[in-house]
Amino acid sequence: MSQDSSDRIVAGVRAWIATASPGARVPSNRALMAEYGASPVTVQKAMQHLVRLGLVESRPGAGTFVRAVPTARAVDYGWQTAALGTAPAGLAGLSSTQRTVAPDAIGLHSGYPAVDLLPERLVRQALVRAARTDAALTRSPAAGLPELQAWFAGELAAAAPAGVTPASARDALIISGSQSGLSSIFRAVVGVGQPLLIESPTYWGAMLAAAQAGVVLVPIPSGPHGPDPDDVERAFVQTGARAFYAQPTFANPTGAQWPIATGQAVLETVRRHGAFLIEDDWAHDLGIDADPRPIAASDDDGHVVYLRSLTKSASPALRVAAVIARGPARDRILADRAAESMYVSGLLQAAALDVVTQPAWRTHLRGFREHLRVRRDLLISSLAAHAPAAHVEGVPVGGLNLWVRLPEGTDVVQVVRACEVRGLIIAPGSEWFPAEPSGSYVRLNYANADPGRFAEAAGILGAVLDGV
Ligand SMILES: Cc1ncc(COP(=O)(O)O)c(C=O)c1O
After folding, report:
1. Among 76, 86, 375, 386, which is 20 to 30 Å from 360 by CA?
2. What is the DSSP string of 203-272?
3. What is the pLDDT of residues 207-228, one digit of tens each?
4. How far is the CA of 254 from the centre of ligand 1 (A)?
5. Residue, of 19 and 232, whose pLDDT is higher
6. Closest C-alpha to 217, from 240, 234, 194
7. SS3 for 287?
8. Element (DSSP H or E) covering residue 392
9. Separation of CA 282 and ligand 1 centre (Å)
10. Mean pLDDT of the 37-59 span
């Protein structure tokens, strides 16, 4: 079979198609064999190529025909504006942290670690092993695979002080990423129109989930030492709220960890008010200078609803997390999850369980900590050298981000735009405030971009700040 004659037939038929009408019958294979002196196989190969190009279609028993060329036309979705009305809160677009950017830009906006910080081999091997188990073909129980439930519960139980009844496997509900858990908890535990105390600044996704659940946010200022417990007490009294959403460990965006006394005081407060602490331990595996101290470990009365995710430390593709809750709150959250998505893929749960139960998981976590430390310190020193006007208010003791204050009165939107024009993508701090921002902030992720470009990134930010 000759490649040349096949190419000649393709070129010849293409030229013919250019003058033929859509639907016209293409000369038969026999005619093409005669015209090009080609074998049946060569003609067949040429026709298959033309089919792949979408130029002809073969109808078995009838022959081969010229395909109708799709016409381009201007589309008009304007009618949807009237049909949909105004966008519900939070549904008008994506957060700046979810943007994709040009390959040569420096992205300090992302909320995830770089792939080379993840346990790639562990995850790939776990997925292969999981594919060989029944989990690949069966439905998971709504609450999750019992062994994975037991793993999450066991981890929290290991942090329980003496005298506290530890969480059981049944209390741990497996969910597909903690973002979906936030939505369920706000719907099931807080409810439409009800107040929810929330730190300020806080995770934008929690505010989004709250908006979707119709929950009314009550901001509590929170700084490098967490919130003032007196403010929390006052807000419970004034609003009659029944829940406080908080990140006591390596908060997004500040990377701060609450002092032990603050955690104890807040737990006492929620107990006194017959309320819940919704503890989002998103960065449990992201400690740098400190270890996580879940407040949930000290609670056995069901006052703390605890969220723990593997997304940032194992793989964003596994999308496995857990809610640990007790009593009727646990049942309601499970019912909400089941209504939303029935169950989490057993295949992904089996892979996640495999990853976290390998001895290499601990080794990965130790290495992860050191990578985060080096990257954090390099970005801080780069800013000090090249963007001295950008002030890191508190060195994060864990997490993925620097929370950076810009000089008073800086127009953050303008800074973000000017950086983008120069190839640096950063996230405007306003997305982390439930009400008016308390200052001009940006969030810079040190765990994702190439650290070799941190000096360049700081130089861009410094030049922009000098110019605005
Ligand atoms: C504080 C906080 N909670 C929850 C989430 C959502 O995590 P997941 O990827 O498990 O849905 C994030 C993601 O960045 C986060 O920062």
Report:
1. 375
2. -HHHHHHHHHHTPEEEEEEEETTEE-HHHHHHHHHHH---EEEE--SS-TTT-----HHHHHHHHHHHHH
3. 999 999 999 999 999 999 999 9
4. 14
5. 232
6. 194
7. strand
8. strand 391-392
9. 6
10. 92
Per-residue pLDDT, 240: 96
- Cβ–ligand 1 contact at 315 (below 6 Å): no
Contact 175, 184 (CB under 8 A): yes
pTM value is 0.84
Question: 222: Cβ below 6 Å to ligand 1?
Answer: no
Distance, CA of 165 to CA of 259 (rounded, Å): 23
State whether the beta carbon of 309 lies less than 6 angstroms from ligand 1: yes
402 strand-pairing partners? 444
Distance 178 CA to ligand 1 centre (A): 6
Residue 1 confidence (pLDDT) above 60:
no
Contacts of 406 (CB under 8 A, 6+ apart): 389, 390, 391, 412, 415, 439, 440, 441, 442, 465
Q: Where are the beta strands (DSSP E) in 255-329?
A: 276-281, 304-309, 321-324
Q: Is 79 exposed, middle or buried (0-12, 13-18, 19+ CB in 10 A)?
A: exposed
- Give the residue-averaged pLDDT of 104-117: 94
| Angle, CA of 181, 184 and 186, to the nearest 5° | 105
Residue 103 has which token pair? 């390959």
193-to-181, 196, 200, 212, 218 alpha-carbon distances in Å: 19, 9, 20, 11, 12
Q: Which residues of 332-342 are buried (b: 16+ CB within 10 A; e: fewer)?
A: bbbebbeeeee
pLDDT at position 18 over 90 = no
CA geometry: angle at 280 spanning 277 and 284, to 5°? 130
pLDDT, one tens digit per residue, over 302-325 is 999 999 999 999 999 999 999 999
- Strand, helix or coil for residue 274: coil
What pLDDT, on the 0 to 100 scale, is given for residue 468? 62
The two tokens of residue 401 are 């981000």
pLDDT digit string (tens) for 419-468? 999 999 999 999 999 999 999 999 999 999 999 999 999 999 999 999 86
Mean pLDDT over 185-202 rounds to 97
Q: Which atom of ligand 1 is nearest to the CA of 182?
A: 4
